[in-house]
Predict the 3D structure of the following.
Amino acid sequence: NVKGLKFDGSKDFIDRLKSDDPNIQRRLSRSVNRIPGTAQYWISVRRKIEAMMEEFGPPTWFITFNPAEYHWDDLIQYVRDNNRDVEGIETMDPSELLAMDPVLVSNYVHMRFA
């Protein structure tokens, strides 16, 4: 259900989506902009950055962090522990191991820095 709009079932919703109804597109865009990775999300992030630049001026420096995850023994063990059912997991080198389960690695990095 799109907030504030009424539909006579899913067929009506799909038909209105296909008809390029601006009300539906505007309301869906507002909902989808909270989903990381979507175009609407990045448009929202860009607008926030532009607003901050308007308020505070352009940034004067940037910093980038490199987690060097291939050297984290605790991360490597965490991935091994959570993938015990994979044959040969104990003999995989760190690059192969971490590439095998990027979602688990991403979650671990997020937990460590969040």
Notes: Residues 69 and 75 are 7 Å apart (CA to CA). The chain is about 60% helix and 0% strand. The longest helix spans residues 39-56.
